Amino acid sequence: MAKSFLTSLDVRAIAQPYMVAIRDQLQQSVNLFLAQGDYRICIERVAADKPLRHDIKIGTVYPIFKGAAGKIFGAYLGDFNDTDMSAGESAQIRHDGYVVTRGNRVPDAASIAVPIFSFGNKLEAVMTISGPIGDYTEERVKEYLSVVMALGQTISKQMGATL
What we know:
39% of the residues lie in helices and 27% in strands.
């Protein structure tokens, strides 16, 4: 019965209200990605309500190991021959539990990515916040990290992870 319940959990439905809360609190766009073969797909997004924002559309497909979300996927799913990361960078990402990128995939945008785990502490998805690079000062990144990491862990626990 527990296995049936766990397989019915929908990361998108669980994460969406938290994504709205993050957007409202931080005024950054929030995205949720799933891995699909060699790609990652945006399955949910909540756009910041401000004129200058980094906006991704649901259904957008990217190479799996590119950008902040790609670094999380690479750290947990990658073979280092396939990623641009070293074993050391991958280990650091797993230790820290997040990635911050500035101008990595889009020159004037920055992102923070955190893993979302499910039952058995399996990587289920990656959640990111993103916005104009000027919004990602060291001081703001610390504020953003405390919010995004806490809610990423909350979503993971609701997905059955035992962090």
